[in-house]
Amino acid sequence: MEKSLYSIGNLRSMEVIDTSTGAKLGYIKDLKIDCNEYKIISIILPDQKVSWFGKSEGIEIPWEKVTKVGIDVVLIDGSDLNLDDKE
Description:
Blueprint: H1 8-12, E1 15-18, E2 24-27, E3 30-34, E4 39-45, E5 59-62, E6 66-69, E7 73-76
């Protein structure tokens, strides 16, 4: 089986889509990486709610929820995630 390799810059340019609702969630803002195991733990999307005084933390999605990394999109299964704020 052939593995696909992606750079962090390439991943950050991909749009994230929830396959359970079809909603476009945005683009990857950051990644959490386990440097000891050399694997991605989660992806972080920017929070849509902007506050004048609060710092936006973003929405963290566990890597286990990523179902497919395509050419220009990342598909996730958000069926049991609380992503109602994103729609």
